[in-house]
Amino acid sequence: MCSLVRSSLTLLGLLICLLSVSSVSAQDSADIPEMLQPWKPWVLHGQEQKLCPRVQGGRAMHCIWPGTLELEVDSRGGRFELFVEAFAQTWLVLPGDRMLWPQQVRSGKTALPVVEREGMPQVFLPEGKHRIRGEFSWARLPDLLPLPQSLALINLTLNKRRVTLPDRDERGRLWLKPSTQEVDAKQQELLQVTVFRRLVDGVPFQIESRVELQVSGAPREVLLGGGLLSDAVPLGLDSPIPARVENDGRLRVQLRPGTWALTLRSRLPGAPAQLAMPRFESAWSDTEIWVFEARPNLRLVELSGARLIDPQQTRLPASWRELPAYKIDRETQLIFVEKRRGDSGQLNDRLTLQRTLWLDFDGRGYTLQDRIQGRTGKSWRLEMPAPGILGRVAIDGTDQFITKIGEQGAAGIEVRSGKLDLTADGRWLGDRSSIAVGGWSTVFQEASAVLNLPPGWLLLDVSGADRAPGTWLKRWSLLDLFLVLLVAIGAFRLWGWRWGGVALVAIGLAWHEGGAPRWVWLHLLAAAALMRVLPAGRARLWISWYRSLTYVVLVALALVFMVSQVRLGLYPQLARPGEMSRPMAHKVSLPAHPDRELIEDRAVEMVAKAELGMSKEPVVTLSSRVGIKQQAPLLQLQTGPGLPQWHWQRVEIGWNGTVDPQQMIHLLLLPPWVSLLLCFLRVLLLGLLLWRVLDLEEPQGGWRRWMRPGGVLGVCLLVVPLVAPATSARADFPSETLLKQLEERLLEPPECG
Fold first, then answer.
1. What is the C-alpha separation between 421 and 589, in angstroms, rounded?
2. Following DSSP, what letter does each residue of 577-609 receive, concatenated?
3. Cβ atoms within 10 Å, residue 116
4. Looking at the domain 350-473+584-670, which fold is it?
5. What is the pLDDT of residue 134?
6. Under CATH, what is the fold of the domain 63-176?
7. Three-class SS of 373-390
8. Are 385 and 369 in contact (CB under 8 A)?
9. What integer pLDDT is reported at residue 454 of this predicted model?
10. Which of 161, 311, 384, 674 sits between 20 and 30 A of 229, alpha carbons compared?
């Protein structure tokens, strides 16, 4: 046994020599920007259009910029000419459709194939400026010519006469002849008005009126007097035809034949007790359909006085059909009976927590970032008890001042809105093996966490969580256990219980490591078992060759694996190079426009905020409360700890159901020095097992001496270092994460966009 240990140590010394030789190339450094330059086309492949410019204030990319469409048509055909600039290779929609197909389409002198996409003729253009020309051919002048919506400027020449104002409808079609609706309109002038209203019980009380007009006859101008309810103040008008709200509240509309839908938004100065249709003398519908959108967090009302109808049996907009609908006529009054105003205080908090944790490199604490979303009911203050240290809090993207209530109170913030979107940065300086699930003075309906471990740390298991698939124990499946036990039992039957134990520990420790030999053990044990029972002959010769082949494969895999284990034990950061180079910084998010519901919640609550004194201390004590509207202009807000931006080993943890403030999770973590011992233990045990496997009886004489285990080992020691792939820190450069960062930076929108 001692001789085997000495031989294994000799083999280990040889591996360290190979490691020292191969690690020389790992010290080379390169200019990262210069090396990443050739990868730009790779990361941008298929995403070139994301580099196209966008219109100021919008999000849509515009990869093609059309100029003025020059269009000449007559009774025999037509031709068009269009200057466009393509910022990336993209498709250009041409005038026409399936019935009016453009012909002889060229870009300069180059003919372009026209294909049908989405029912429209289109050509594929490379990046650059293009002069597109094409022709139409027809037996008679069509009534209309479909045009792409992106074309806004048109110079039309009809029968050799310039048309000053081409007639285009809302679908972008260009009318070359008077439409059928306009021809029929000369026969009879009719106007039918249909009105739908959506009442929103907010602060202020809002009314959205949808007025549908069915018009026939000649173009004309009318005054409609039923757009606004009594005492309503107009807020906005959306109309596809020219329209405006007069000072007396009536609608002035320039009608033309067709069906049009106008949307008028208004508000009432206070909460109404009753509402009725407006009194008017102009043409208007005798009945209207109203829907009511309640806001129970503001007030609870009961409606009466009007007949409730089925909204699915009406022509209401689809988004309105989920609300209760009422039929209103000239004699009906919709009465509002107020049952309760404001929040009754019986609503519980409904908050969700998304936590990200970074373990310190020395393991003394955690840096955390919490994202809390949902709605608060009873809680108007959120606190983080010790050993958590609250460093920075932002609500809706705006930094908040962290305070204490009393000398012994926990750090926290005041929450004055029912709807909450909070981001908090801080530290956890308690025992690294026990962490509070929530860490806040409230109950969360849902909670999830992501634990980031630095190089060298290993998470064996997590207790107190419902889901943690990334731990070492959770990666074991029944198949893995069966295969490891099968190999150990085979070694026990072949070489005794000591070698069975060595095989169990060695293969068990290395089973989930990258590059570890796994299935080859089964082939080797099967060949060794057959060699013991087969008599001399052709079958035994074939099995001998098969066993020799498994020797070569096993030694090659084992040597590469042991070299990588020694390297990763000494330098664990070489496991995935390129992911630790990002600096530590705050991720600042700009607040988006607050939604309507959040504005209304803040408008009605009007709860007094705590008076905040100016102090340089990170946490202050509140002794009195006075109403303030906003933070003091010279208030010094806490910035908190710097957030790490590295991502190494990520372990996702989840919980099913609610999470209490006292609930804890327990982490079984192994520090880097234990990981180093495990790496060398894997190498030592695998070397022992490999030496025992190769120390088998072999046929003697002649060329067969090269098939001895010692000969196989010598060949592998000479060949493997030459043919084994380099495992330096640049072997996988650039890494997938680094390429992803390069892609994000190249596709990052400009700050002025």
1. 12
2. TTSS-SPP-----PPPPPPHHHHHHHHHH-PPP
3. 11
4. Immunoglobulin-like (2.60.40)
5. 93
6. Immunoglobulin-like (2.60.40)
7. EEECCCCCEEEECCCEEE
8. no
9. 87
10. 311
